[in-house]
Design a protein that fits this description.
By secondary structure, the protein is of the alpha+beta class. Strand 22 and strand 23 (about 490) form a beta hairpin. Helix 5 (about 100-130) packs antiparallel against helix 7 (about 140-165), helix 5 crosses helix 8 (about 165-175) and helix 7 packs antiparallel against helix 8. The mean pLDDT is about 90.
Length: about 525
């Protein structure tokens, strides 16, 4: 655990030192669970958005994108169930005075059981070597089976209790398992209570006439209330999807783990509208499509797994998470849900407006069913950043910190580094910079030794460094250094655009999906 904490501290420190993420309002001592993205973080975040948007909208002729408002009519949140049911089960420790999500305490307990199971598997793999059959071991080893069955029992009981709003049993389960405050070890718990997560605000010029509003807790409802507007103006037939990237706000009582759980965050969601009765086949299809999208990033297939929900939300008939192995363990990265016709039916009821689709092939009107894919942009940023940050020991015994981001996502695609400022090298470097900046986000740097500049670019994930020396002035070639291999080669200046594009173009990611 200590090692994981050290890795996470280094990650947070690196993010701040190199302009990726800063604590918001830091000069005023900040705000809890609120962060600002720095110059490199904003670029990386923008590139992740582009990758998602291109894959979801540009590559699918039956999916379009919108940008709905953050402020929405308050009745929308009554219809969606957020006013009555958007709660977290929270529990306080009487001794430490700290507050925790009861479901997270139980999930973390189950995660430790899985860690024990994995240790048994790893020990067996070392013992048996090449003859080891992982699948057979997992299905026959008594300890692994016991750990997995205990996990299943705990999660099933928790899901049933939360679904029945039996919060007393949730507390009883925590006490039966002797779960302690992870910081102090105290097991002195209060009762479990529900807290609504929506932020309230007002719209209007005066307090007397102001309308009570909410900051949206999700972006999906902006898609649902615009379903007919988009369908009619795009003239799409079912099945078709509506995608959106936007801010959402949740008053997380227990916000933790850096940008993993924040109060102001960004979602990338797509609602796929389908004929009733076909939703579960599309649900399975989108599960695989979304996993393939993640795998194309090259972060390692072992870092992903599906988690099927034991407890379904009030609107769903099937749900699964794509979990990623963060520095603090496997956690939810993206959700895929079969939302049935709940949302459109609820908005039709509360608004009094028909939200039905006329299916010319079936010759009937109906309310479509919906399959949702929803990924947290900030969580995805953290997944990519944490997986890419590496400490390497080089052949000469020295060390370097490198952020081996997928090149298409890198904030800076290439750095122009004149060997020195004099003898016309700086001017030649600026000429290359001004030529390439139309196509790529570039950086020009002429301070410090070339070695220090290389290390700085490694640390922010720049795929290429381009060094201008005295030979460049006569033969018009430069030294091109690759971030990942650190190999250097002389290439003509005229070839730089093609070389950089070949490695950093989004096509490299999109073609792998």
């Amino acid at each position: 655990m200590a090692k994981q904490e050290d890795v996470f501290k280094k990650l947070i420190s690196h993010a701040k030192e190199y302009g990726f993420i800063f604590p918001s309002s830091e000069i005023y001592d900040g705000l809890s669970a609120i962060y600002d993205y720095g110059q490199n973080g904003a670029e990386l975040k923008s590139n992740i958005k582009q990758y998602w948007w291109k894959a979801m909208v540009q590559m699918n002729e039956n999916i379009v994108g919108i940008d709905s408002a953050i402020f929405m009519h308050p009745t929308i949140w009554k219809a969606s169930g957020h006013v009555d049911a958007f709660n977290d089960p929270l529990i306080d420790n009487k001794d430490s005075k700290k507050r925790f999500r009861a479901d997270v305490l139980l999930e973390d307990y189950c995660a430790k059981l899985e860690e024990k199971a994995q240790k048994e598997i790893e020990k067996a793999a070392k013992r048996f070597g090449d003859a080891f059959d992982k699948n057979e071991f997992e299905t026959t080893n008594g300890r692994v089976i016991e750990y997995r069955e205990k996990q299943k029992t705990i999660l099933s009981r928790m899901a049933k209790s939360l679904e029945n709003e039996d919060l007393a049993d949730v507390k009883a389960l925590i006490e039966e398992l002797e779960i302690a405050d992870p910081d102090t070890g105290s097991k002195n718990w209060t009762d479990v209570r529900q807290f609504n997560l929506m932020f309230g605000t007002k719209l209007g010029a005066s307090a007397d006439s102001a309308t009570d509003l909410y900051l949206r807790p999700e972006t999906a409802q902006g898609i649902f209330v615009n379903f007919l507007n988009v369908q009619k103006t795009s003239r799409h037939k079912l099945p078709f999807g509506i995608a959106q990237i936007g801010k959402a706000f949740r008053n997380e009582i227990v916000a933790r783990q850096f940008i993993f759980r924040m109060r102001e965050f960004e979602q990338m969601e797509m609602q796929f509208f389908v004929p009733p009765g076909t939703e579960l086949s599309f649900y399975e299809e989108w599960k695989q499509k979304r996993l393939n999208w993640h795998l194309a990033l090259g972060l390692g297939a072992d870092n992903y797994k599906f988690h099927d929900h034991e407890k379904l939300a009030h609107y769903a008939n099937a749900a699964a998470d794509i979990e990623f192995k963060f520095p603090f363990g496997f956690k939810e990265l993206e959700g895929i849900h079969s939302r049935t016709d709940f949302d459109l039916k609820a908005h039709e009821k509360f608004s009094g407006r028909k939200l039905q689709y006329f299916d010319s092939e079936r010759n009937e009107n109906y309310i479509p069913y919906v399959v949702e894919t929803s990924v947290g942009l900030d969580r995805l940023f953290l997944a990519i950043f944490s997986n890419s940050l590496k400490e390497e020991v080089l052949d000469d015994g020295s060390e370097r910190t490198v952020l081996s981001l997928p090149p298409a996502l890198a904030p800076v695609k290439a750095a122009i580094l004149p060997l020195m400022k004099k003898d016309g090298l700086a001017e030649y470097g600026e000429k290359i910079f001004n030529d390439l900046k139309f196509d790529f986000n570039m950086i020009y740097e002429d301070k410090d030794s070339i070695g220090k500049r290389y290390r700085r670019q490694d640390a922010i994930g720049t795929p290429f460094c381009i060094t201008i020396d005295h030979d460049t002035l006569t033969d018009h070639t430069v030294t091109l250094r690759d971030r990942d291999t650190m190999q250097q080669e002389r290439v003509p200046v005229a070839d730089l655009r093609r070389i950089i594009d070949e490695k950093t173009n989004f096509r490299n990611l999109l073609s792998k999906i």
